[in-house]
């Protein structure tokens, strides 16, 4: 996974040897915390397999998902650079294998590898764009459009490397990522399928029209049928 990653492909053989020697692998069960809010950030975190969400909770137990990470994705670079503490919980949404790159190794790469720094710049720019889109969707779009944009967002190559047209994603997981109930996610998926944008499979979703998902405005905003 490290050698095939976007950033790993551009490391020298000596740099990759150091990464392979110092990275560690851990397994997390569905529902288990990979990192906890308030803990000191000691690793850059990547998913070898599985699915994780970054979320924050209020004192009364309400929770909102900020972003998700699928196999091949990494998170925590901003917190590591600031030498800070985690500002969110990262929870495994299904059984997951996780790669942990120590902060010292991460900083060594930042100090020695120009390609690695370019990758981090692109990643953090994509992350900022994702958060801006999330804020806009939450304030301006109905639940069906939020589900559509959530699906489209999973095809950002900086955040979700090399996605295929088939998404191994359950309706309950999609609801958590889009910030809607499972029932609303189901209604949205039916609408998107009727619009010819996706096909709902037994254990996932096949995307037929990615640009259509990005442009989808919701059930209340669609033009009348002719």
From TrEMBL:
Record-annotated HTH crp-type domain positions: 141-211
CDD domains for this protein: CAP_ED
Protein's UniProt keywords contain Membrane: no
Pfam families according to UniProt: cNMP_binding, HTH_Crp_2
InterPro entries: cNMP-bd_dom, cNMP-bd_dom_sf, Env_Response_Regulators, HTH_CRP, RmlC-like_jellyroll, WH-like_DNA-bd_sf, WH_DNA-bd_sf
Highest taxon of source: Bacteria
Annotated Cyclic nucleotide-binding domain residues: 7-109
Annotated keywords: DNA-binding, Transcription, Transcription regulation
Claim: Iron is one of the keywords in the record: no
PANTHER family on file: CRP FAMILY TRANSCRIPTIONAL REGULATORY PROTEIN, DNA-BINDING TRANSCRIPTIONAL DUAL REGULATOR CRP
Name used for this protein in its record: Crp/Fnr family transcriptional regulator
Organism: Roseateles aquae
């Amino acid at each position: 996974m490290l050698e095939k990653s976007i950033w790993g492909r551009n490391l020298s053989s000596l740099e990759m040897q150091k990464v392979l020697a110092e990275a560690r692998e851990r397994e997390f069960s569905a529902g288990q915390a990979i990192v906890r809010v308030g803990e000191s950030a000691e690793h850059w975190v990547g998913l070898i397999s599985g699915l994780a969400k970054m979320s924050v909770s209020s004192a009364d137990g309400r929770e909102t998902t900020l972003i998700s990470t699928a196999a091949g994705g990494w998170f925590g670079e901003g917190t590591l650079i600031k030498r800070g503490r985690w500002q969110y919980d990262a929870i495994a949404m299904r059984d997951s294998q996780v790669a942990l790159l120590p902060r010292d190794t991460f900083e060594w790469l930042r100090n020695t590898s120009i390609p690695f720094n370019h990758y981090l710049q692109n990643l953090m720019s994509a992350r900022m764009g994702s958060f801006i889109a999330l804020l806009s969707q939450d304030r301006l779009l109905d639940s069906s459009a939020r589900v559509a944009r959530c699906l489209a967002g999973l095809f950002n190559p900086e955040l979700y490397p090399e996605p295929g047209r088939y998404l191994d994603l359950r309706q309950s997981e999609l609801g958590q990522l889009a910030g809607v109930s499972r029932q609303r996610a189901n209604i949205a998926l039916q609408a998107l399928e009727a619009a010819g944008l996706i096909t709902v499979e037994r254990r996932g979703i096949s995307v037929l029209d990615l640009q259509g998902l990005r442009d989808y405005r919701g059930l209340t905003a669609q033009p009348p049928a002719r």
